[in-house]
Amino acid sequence: MKKIEAIIRPERVNHVKDALVDAGFSGLTTTQVTGRGAQRGIVHTGRSGQSITIDMLPKVKLEMVVTNEHLDQAISVIVKAARTGEIGDGKIFVQPVEQVIRVRTGEEGEAAV
Amino acid sequence: MKKIEAIIRPERVNHVKDALVDAGFSGLTTTQVTGRGAQRGIVHTGRSGQSITIDMLPKVKLEMVVTNEHLDQAISVIVKAARTGEIGDGKIFVQPVEQVIRVRTGEEGEAAV
Amino acid sequence: MKKIEAIIRPERVNHVKDALVDAGFSGLTTTQVTGRGAQRGIVHTGRSGQSITIDMLPKVKLEMVVTNEHLDQAISVIVKAARTGEIGDGKIFVQPVEQVIRVRTGEEGEAAV
Amino acid sequence: MNTGDIAWILLASALVLLMTPGLALFYGGLARSKNAAATIMHSFMCMGIAGVVWVLWGYTLAFGPDVGRFIGDFSFFGLSGVSATEPGPYADNMPHQAFMIFQGMFAIITPALVTGAFAERMKFSAFVIFTILWVTIVYAPVAHWVWGGGWLGELGALDFAGGNVVHINSGVAALAAALIFGRRLGFGSEPMEPHNVPMVVLGAGLLWFGWFGFNAGSALAADGTAVNAFVVTNTAAAAGILGWVAMSWIFDSKPSVIGAASGAVAGLVAITPAAGFVGPMPSIIIGLIAGILCYLAAGLLVRLNLDDSLSVWGVHGIGGTWGALATGLFVGIGFGELAEGVARGEQVLNQVVAIVATWAWAFVVTAVILWVLKVTIGLRVSDNDEAVGLDVAEHGETAYRL
Amino acid sequence: MNTGDIAWILLASALVLLMTPGLALFYGGLARSKNAAATIMHSFMCMGIAGVVWVLWGYTLAFGPDVGRFIGDFSFFGLSGVSATEPGPYADNMPHQAFMIFQGMFAIITPALVTGAFAERMKFSAFVIFTILWVTIVYAPVAHWVWGGGWLGELGALDFAGGNVVHINSGVAALAAALIFGRRLGFGSEPMEPHNVPMVVLGAGLLWFGWFGFNAGSALAADGTAVNAFVVTNTAAAAGILGWVAMSWIFDSKPSVIGAASGAVAGLVAITPAAGFVGPMPSIIIGLIAGILCYLAAGLLVRLNLDDSLSVWGVHGIGGTWGALATGLFVGIGFGELAEGVARGEQVLNQVVAIVATWAWAFVVTAVILWVLKVTIGLRVSDNDEAVGLDVAEHGETAYRL
Amino acid sequence: MNTGDIAWILLASALVLLMTPGLALFYGGLARSKNAAATIMHSFMCMGIAGVVWVLWGYTLAFGPDVGRFIGDFSFFGLSGVSATEPGPYADNMPHQAFMIFQGMFAIITPALVTGAFAERMKFSAFVIFTILWVTIVYAPVAHWVWGGGWLGELGALDFAGGNVVHINSGVAALAAALIFGRRLGFGSEPMEPHNVPMVVLGAGLLWFGWFGFNAGSALAADGTAVNAFVVTNTAAAAGILGWVAMSWIFDSKPSVIGAASGAVAGLVAITPAAGFVGPMPSIIIGLIAGILCYLAAGLLVRLNLDDSLSVWGVHGIGGTWGALATGLFVGIGFGELAEGVARGEQVLNQVVAIVATWAWAFVVTAVILWVLKVTIGLRVSDNDEAVGLDVAEHGETAYRL
Ligand SMILES: Nc1ncnc2c1ncn2[C@@H]1O[C@H](COP(=O)(O)OP(=O)(O)O)[C@@H](O)[C@H]1O
Ligand SMILES: Nc1ncnc2c1ncn2[C@@H]1O[C@H](COP(=O)(O)OP(=O)(O)O)[C@@H](O)[C@H]1O
Ligand SMILES: Nc1ncnc2c1ncn2[C@@H]1O[C@H](COP(=O)(O)OP(=O)(O)O)[C@@H](O)[C@H]1O
Q: Which of A28, C47, D177, E221 is the most exposed place for a label (fewest CB within 10 A)?
């Protein structure tokens, strides 16, 4: 199994979640994060006309554990729904998961995803 | 070493933390997240009597890096303390960790956990 | 590629971020978390003079995916910038990353980091 | 003139002014986090815009010497001839400007009430123009009709403190806005829950506090009528809480905190036109029914798939209509009396005429203003900006950095 | 009757009304995030419940014609005979209803004060019944004893603005509640720190502001007594800050912000019974000692392992008791005077009698009400609901969605 | 003496008191989250410290019998001879203590205004000592010069409600503080955006509300001057919003919500000295220019790389200076009149003298106090504590646990 970690724009989260559920992926977890990347130079002007480059922008991290066979599909659904084509669309990271347990039942492995 | 990532109910966090410390696991990190899973259909009625299914529920993510030998014990402690038997109890994911460093001392490996 | 996960003191985040950008690492994601570790015994006195040991302290989790060759450099930059020498400086965990995708372009692998 | 009445009206004016920041919080808390600052900005800007418009041309249109029972003339333009020391035509126990500024506070909050209808999607530039126009050609005429020597006052329709002028007016304008703006993205599918319940309750608390100035101040003297208005205002608000909370408990299974705040506002809205004409016992009934009715009205709109973002029509439009009607039904019970020679049926009829006239004017003129803005500069932000949230998209600010 | 006094009492009433939303924020900010909305709801519901109960039967029980120096009769039921234009038996410079509504605001905030004791664990349904009963059979009688022609007023016990009626009454009821409810889950092991310090300070600020109406309004006229009450209220609050902050600085190593807010409230509580009887210099002493004493009292309860969630007993019970005593000790110093022919010792004794009587009544009757509710419908939510938090469990709402 | 004026001044005092919690929120919201509670604490402590200092020795220094046109003597030490029932030397329509407490509220908020300059880095212990000294040797003398029979009042410089005494005084003290404290860590490189926009707007709303007491209360009677002051206060605030929002829209590309709140405050500051001397039309100009000027001034300081954390100098120093000047330029237009035999040029000159004198005194004496504290106990927390945030480092508290 794999964990997909996608850092996406907050305003695309609902699209992505809907697209995922349509594709049959219901389980997921999201976290509010802030990120820095190629997206830079958002110059902010403060109360006193003070200009500061804010490099940390609000993003949402979406985490989803999927079976190996569903991995590619899930990624392509996320990429499609999250993309705007502008800098700052975010990244997807895939990591190995060795074990999955459902707390409620104690089920393990693919049955627990 | 392994990282245990447990997505659990917020109201069980204190139980789980206490159970872990009793079992000798003190180091851990928690994050407020929201999650969607099998737990569905919490129909919420808004100010105007508008009913909406809220599928994203508040959860807590508990992260803990443990040595391989302690893995099973830690998991069983968490499962026991987090379980209510109702849908929404959450999931535990286990991932490999290749390196651990203690920032304060620079210690590496198991000594740093 | 590897994911570096560093749990550090909130007050060191700006130092660490600046140090990373100076070393050429711009992409990163941060999350507000709370953590428990060796750092203990912060005894807090409440409104009513009630003393409670607060074992969960605010920390920041910094996540950064880097290529294998940059791993050691990145870690040493973080360790240097985050260290105060006092208990509570935090931990760094390294995990394998199997795939990286840039949402905007669909680029994969090292090009996407 | 006497110091007691002057102190009273100035402090009542201060209380009514405070209602607008109160409303900013009430609305801001009901909005989603990403639109919190922008929603608050709407109300706060009304203090700026209407505050200046009123002294320049608003007051003279509403309260200047009557032209055809329809509007005031320009005699008081820029407050010329409106003395700070001598009484004016509307109250001889206080300087003319004291009356003027008390009325000005009403002109500030009324457009602010409307903003709840298009919260979370209106373009700020369009909002600024809308507010200037709305105060001028919707608010000022209706105020004139009722209080400035216009035809509704003449007719004998009763509106003690603004059931028509403020609440029906803003509530029906909200309905027009809901129709013309269309729904927010995700309306009906995504949750759009209040982002800050304590802020909503704080807002309701400040509104309640300010409403004493609104209603009891409308007696324009620190006298028995003010006392009665004060007592029934408090009582109707209390009863409104009970009504709405009971409804949410029964129909949504849990007693709602947002419902308690909304119920208080509903009760306050409904007692507004009646405050100088009915006693405490009718005020319990008026408030209780307001809580029930406004709960149902807010829900009705949602079922009709109309998106009046913060339920302005449900609370102010329907609450105000119920209050205007109830004023006819209960006038003289416990306080006040039917005008000499007017039967209750006749009074109720007068109330209905006033209600219908205000509905019609508010709906049609608001719709025209919005339609013109829509086809010229546009009313809504882009879909992407709406998804990002107005705080960042329109104001470059983030409500919270916690 | 004169307009100055009427304006004064109405605005004082408005200020006291605002104290309840202020208290909602003060308490709401002290609670944990998961109980913030529910804690606020308690106070806000008191505005609804006591607001209606007071005009129906509360006022007549407290201020209706005396029955045996113990309670009022039903003459004023539903405010019958309580005029909005003519003076009543308690003040001849204002309409009877003006006096009635001023008193009504006290009847709203007093049960709201009690709610701090059982915050974060009480069932909402039980709370509603409790509040109705408590206002009726705890608050109204004690108000009658002191101000309505009852035995404590007769005796010559001094209570200018409610040290007994409001503060000892609510504070001791809180003690009974702490005993009967038992501790919150995790009390003493988990941190239960205030979730929102700015909200606590805002609440304290609104309380302070409202307290001018509470204390200076109790002069029932815009006269020298009101001026004195105003000055000592402000001064005691200021001194209360200094007292509590100093204690937290010395004993907890850091000057506490929550302590500053709590200290102001402690000073305000303690000066309440004395506001019309002592001058500014004693008020510094009264406030300072209140800050110190209430800090210690709040800590004492915790050490006794009693869970009065938001320290109501420590602040209102002990602060009110100290104030009642101090009224006897300092009456006539800087303002006012001992009643003709009454020695200071005698006055202090009268104060002690009033204190003991109020403690006893508040404790016993509150305990009985709670015990009956406990064995019938139950007082506490389930353990799971308590862990989840009352906002979601009891109201289906979440205080914040940031 | 009459009840209307007494009610008026007491309620005005209550309103001014509320400005300090309002300021606490305004400043607290502008600060970063990790300093929110500490920033609020500064303002709240001023209520404690200045509240006690004023009745002990502040009032007598400012308003005691004149010594050399420079300071009051100690006749009124501890309020001895300051009656709660009889008029004093400054107003014969109210008890002396009523005047005293109204003035006391000004002495509370003025040092609180200064705290914005050193927010997010000052040591709490140093702050306590600074505040005691500043009220005593900066505030009290300037108040005496202008209102207590001192040389500026004698000269004929006009300052209706505190343009010099409150705003220039605090704003220039802030400039001195910015210079002596030095910049916050990360100033100019890290974003230091407001952490809570709704809190800032709420604070501005409470300030606006309280400012009615501040300005209109300064008429010391519920008369035509009060009415005028009330009207121009509201109008200038409204115009101030428009000015600042327009500037941010033009120069920073987006209309700022923080700018709207700041603009209102700027307008209120500028109208303060003029409120009893100019009519509504000049007040629009005064407010509008204040919004523009203060926007520019706040930006200027940043470009000079000076860190006046919350722009106190820009808003109060420059806004107050503009207002003092404008008072001379516009006096008699729409309200009031030039003093008999004084030409406008002469009046403007008097204003300039008062401005220069206040700048000089505030700057020099504040600088001396701060310098002494710096070389003795130290002004700033450690770098590490500054990075951690003052809430935890200085008070052991966390503003939010959401
Ligand atoms: N190397 C990285 N490690 C962790 N997070 C990253 C990394 N690079 C980017 N991110 C996250 O992805 C977000 C978007 O990246 P960015 O480079 O701005 O967009 P794009 O991929 O479209 O160029 C960042 O805000 C950050 O949260
Ligand atoms: N595949 C998944 N990937 C990531 N998180 C998941 C996944 N499935 C469930 N979760 C998380 O676990 C939480 C509980 O899951 P849920 O399915 O509701 O409970 P249960 O496991 O008892 O059926 C979810 O709210 C979500 O945060
Ligand atoms: N085993 C662990 N798993 C996950 N997080 C940990 C673990 N140990 C420590 N942490 C995180 O690191 C933070 C700092 O650890 P701590 O032990 O206090 O400091 P130090 O490493 O300097 O002794 C903790 O607050 C916690 O968030």
A: E221
DSSP assignment, residue F338? P
Q: What is the DSSP letter of E89?
A: S
**Mean pLDDT, residues F124-132 taken together:** 98
Neighbours of F10 (CB within 10 A): 32
Confidence of residue F1 (pLDDT cuts 50, 70, 90): confident
Chains that touch E (3 or more CB pairs under 8 A): B, C, D, F
Q: How many residues does chain D have?
A: 402
Residues A49, F311: Cα–Cα separation, whole Å: 11
Distance C74 CA to ligand 2 centre (A): 33
Question: By the 8 A CB rule, do F260 and D43 touch?
Answer: no
pLDDT tens for each residue of E139-154: 999 999 999 999 999 9
Q: Which residues are within 8 A (CB) of E101 and not within 5 positions of it... i.e. 6 or more apart?
A: D227, D230, D231, D234, E10, E13
Cα–Cα distance, E310 to D126 (Å, whole number): 47
CA–CA separation, F313 and F294 (whole Å): 9
CA distance F126 to F120: 13
Nearest by Cα to F194 from F120, F253, F133, F86: F120
Contact indicator for D253, D206 with CB cutoff of 8 Å: no
- CA of A55 from ligand 1 middle (Å) equals 11
Nearest CA in chain B to E185: B14
Residues 268-297 of F with CB under 8 A from A: 295-296
Give the Cα separation of A13 and A36 in Å (integer).
18
Dig out the tokens for F158 from the structure. 């006009």
Q: How far apart, in whole angstroms, are the C-alpha atoms of residue E249 and residue E298? A: 16
**F111 token code pair:** 């040092």
Residue A47 has pLDDT above 70, yes or no: no
Q: Which residues of chain E neighbour B44 with C-beta distances below 8 Å?
A: 396
Distance CA E366, CA E177 (A): 8
Q: Hey, are the CB atoms on D396 and A12 less than 8 Å from each other?
A: no
Task: Output phi, psi for F258, to 5 deg.
Answer: -60, -35
Are D359 and D176 in contact by the 8 Å Cβ rule? The answer is no
The residues facing B30 across adjacent strands are B62, C34
User: Is E67:E152 a contact under the CB 8 Å cutoff?
Assistant: no
Q: How far apart are CA F215 and CA F378, in angstroms?
A: 37
| Phi, psi dihedral angles at A93 (to 5 degrees) | -115, 140
- Cβ count within 10 A of residue E251: 12
Helix axes D224-251, E36-53, angle to 10 degrees: 130
CA E385 to CA E394: how far, in whole Å?
A: 8
Nearest by CB to residue F199, choosing from E198, E239, E258, is E198
What mean pLDDT comes out for the span F304-333?
97
Distance CA F268, CA F215 (A): 9
Best residue among A13, A29, A101 to mutate for probing ligand 2's pocket (most ligand atoms within 8 Å of CB) is A29
| Rounded-to-integer distance, Cα D315 and Cα A64, Å | 43
Q: Are F289 and F246 in contact (CB under 8 A)?
A: no
ipTM: 0.97
Residue D160 CA, distance from chain mean position: 14
- C7 pairs with which residues across the strands? C61, C91
- Exposure on the CB side of residue A82, measured as CA atoms within 13 A: 32
Tokens 């002396």 correspond to what residue? F96
The helix or strand, by DSSP H or E, that contains position C91, with its residue range, turns out to be strand C91-96
> Cβ(D266)–Cβ(D315) under 8 Å?
yes
Chain A, nearest residue to B37 by Cα: A27
The whole-number average pLDDT for the span C88-93 is 95
**Burial, E381: exposed, middle or buried (Cβ in 10 Å; 0-12, 13-18, 19+)?**
buried
Contact F232, F279 (CB under 8 A): yes
Element (H, E) at D126: helix D124-134
